[in-house]
Amino acid sequence: MKMYGIKTCASVKKAKAFFDKNNISYDFIDLTKEPVNEQKIEKWQAFTPATSMLNPRSKAYRDLKLKGKNISEEKAVSIIAKENSVLKRPIIEHGLNTHDKFIIGFNEEEYKSTFLA
């Protein structure tokens, strides 16, 4: 399982704490050191639209003045590839086939039902 995020992000810290507390192993990919590219984002689109990967609460989202704009999927992929800090975090990638998990953000109840059930 892979967790994509930024170490200083509060949601990433919560997800890491959840996995550590429950002895669930994961590889952490720090987006500031290993940014994701368009090919990775396009793979993720099989699970969720790129526009729903955008984090309207992020500083990068505000800096890019994206609020209220109608952003196409293609444009969202391009924006994310150029500025990974605009992604909702963390992104949990577990396999990436039809039977595996892809989760954006941290919701403790969702994590419990997904990883502890």
Describe the structure.
The protein is an alpha+beta fold and 117 residues long. The chain has one domain (2-115): Glutaredoxin (3-Layer(aba) Sandwich). It is built from five helices and four strands; from the N terminus they run E-H-E-H-H-H-E-E-H. The chain has helices at residues 10-21, 38-44, 59-63, 73-82, 108-115; strands at 2-5, 27-30, 91-94, 101-104. Strands 2-1-3-4 form a four-stranded mixed beta sheet, with no helix packed on it. It is globular, with a radius of gyration of 14 Å.
Lateral arrangement of strands in the main beta sheet: 2-1-3-4
Summed up, the domain count is: 1
Proportion of β residues?
5-15%
Give the overall average pLDDT: 92
Keywords:
5 helices, 117 residues, four-stranded mixed sheet, single chain, 4 strands, Glutaredoxin, 36% helix
In short, what is this structure?
With about 120 residues, the chain is α+β, with helices and mostly antiparallel strands.
